[in-house]
Amino acid sequence: MKTVEEIAPDVFRGTGTDVNFVLLRDGDALTLIDGGYPGDVTAVESAIRALGRRPEDVQGMLLTHAHVDHMGAIVAFHDRYGIPVFTDPTEVAHARREYLEQATGKDFIPMLHKHGVLPWLLRIARAGATRSVSVNAQAFTPGHPLDLPGGPVPVATHGHTSGHTAFHLPQHGVVVTGDALVTAHPLSKIQGPQLLPPVFDHGEEDTLGALDHLAALDADTIVPGHGPALTMPISAAVDVVRDRTH
Ligand SMILES: [Zn+2]
């Protein structure tokens, strides 16, 4: 299995336990967007080394949102190497675990009879899904390119969590959608652009509203938080999601 997939020049998708992370490269320097589960730290480190870089070469780490399946290596690398972490002003308190907007084990009990749910729960439990994680993140200003390798532009897509953010890479026509729009999930029977099952969303109404912010972007390559990358204009992907949701 490939450790990293080059989505666009210097834009790489890596995979943890049923979840993606993204590396942006600029010369020797890297930006890491999301970091899998706590148990995915080795997967993230392997991806970095496959690019001929070291964790210390990561200049900054970005969180689309502060769920445990996206914070793993972010927390580990912050603690080990002091690499700064940035997220939406609203998401900062979530990353610090001043509050928690995340489904817990009991939320999945009604779904246990469904195909694939139990194996998935066991898989993510092994990856550290029940571990409590927090990180002292700093706030960025949404809408402005960040002074980090790859020059990602945070796009406020609040809904899945109160401060969820996507990242636009205008020079490559790529959008990293996080969990605002995904292309597959072990708990979903369908492939292609879709929302996560509602159990994962903090605010379902807002999650639909956030799609407007994605649809307005100039991007034809989508790198989601879960599922494969997709070559499709983001506005068309949003149309597919809206059709499926009605
Ligand atoms: Zn997720």
Can you give a write-up of this model?
This protein has helices spanning 41-50, 68-81, 92-95, 117-126, 204-215, 234-245; strands spanning 4-8, 11-15, 20-26, 29-33, 58-62, 85-87, 138-139, 153-156, 165-169, 174-178, 221-224, 230-231. The protein is an alpha/beta fold and 246 residues long. The protein has one domain: 4-Layer Sandwich (Metallo-beta-lactamase, Chain A), CATH 3.60.15.10. A 7-stranded mixed sheet has the order 1-2-3-4-5-6-7. The protein has a 5-stranded mixed sheet with strand order 8-9-10-11-12, covered by helices on one side. Helix 1 (41-50) packs across helix 2 (68-81). It binds zinc ion. Zinc ion binds next to helix 2. Zinc ion binds at residues 19, 67, 69-70, 179, 225-226.
CATH level-4 homologous superfamily: Ribonuclease Z/Hydroxyacylglutathione hydrolase-like
Number of strands: 12
- Compute the gyration radius: what is it? 16 Å
Say what oligomer this is. single chain
Number of domains: 1
Helicity, in percent? 25-40%
Largest β-sheet summary: 7 strands, mixed
Q: Class in CATH?
A: Alpha Beta
Distance between the termini: 37 Å
Shape: globular
Weakly predicted, low-confidence segments: none
Number of helices: 6
- The fraction of residues in strands falls at 15-25%
**What's the architecture in CATH terms?**
4-Layer Sandwich
Ligands and ions found: zinc ion
The name of the CATH topology is Metallo-beta-lactamase, Chain A
The overall average pLDDT, rounded, is 93
Sequence of secondary-structure elements? EEEEHEHEHHEEEEHEEH
Order of strands, main sheet, comes to 1-2-3-4-5-6-7
InterPro entries: Metallo-B-lactamas (IPR001279), NDM-1-like (IPR050855), RibonucZ/Hydroxyglut_hydro (IPR036866)
Pfam family, one: Lactamase_B
Organism: Rhodococcus kronopolitis
Protein name: MBL fold metallo-hydrolase
